[in-house]
Amino acid sequence: MNNNYVLVSFVDEIPVHTTFSAHDWPLHVTIIRPFISKIPENELIQIIDNCLANHHSYSVHGLRDEMFGPDKNIRVTELEYTQDIQVLHNNLSSALDHCVDFKPSEFNEYRPHITEQENKRINIGEKLRMNSVSLVMMGDSTRTVVHTSFLL
How many separate domains does the chain show? Predict the structure, then answer.
């Protein structure tokens, strides 16, 4: 318990148990911002799987380049707002609300985006199909994919 997590959809499938540096994330859409779990990991996974049981895969579309972060120095491609991604975010937020502590957010509303990584990014106008949501444990310097739920 009390582990730090985040829920993301990876652009390319990343196998469970994959570990990567905190500075070398694969391209992804953050669905639920970082949080601290107040329940055991297996219970957290069950809540996520139950919530996602009837969710369908969704499309994302690169809308515009933005700079995020407290110092506005993190280059992202903001994604076009869609009902699908908002409902996915809202449903997971509601399902987790009683058993996690969400970390502070830079924004008051959900702003789906894909952060540029090294020389990897999605371009404005590019469309992608997202088929899963992954639970990623956030250690001090590493990140580990601990579970993936595949969408319908």
Answer: 1
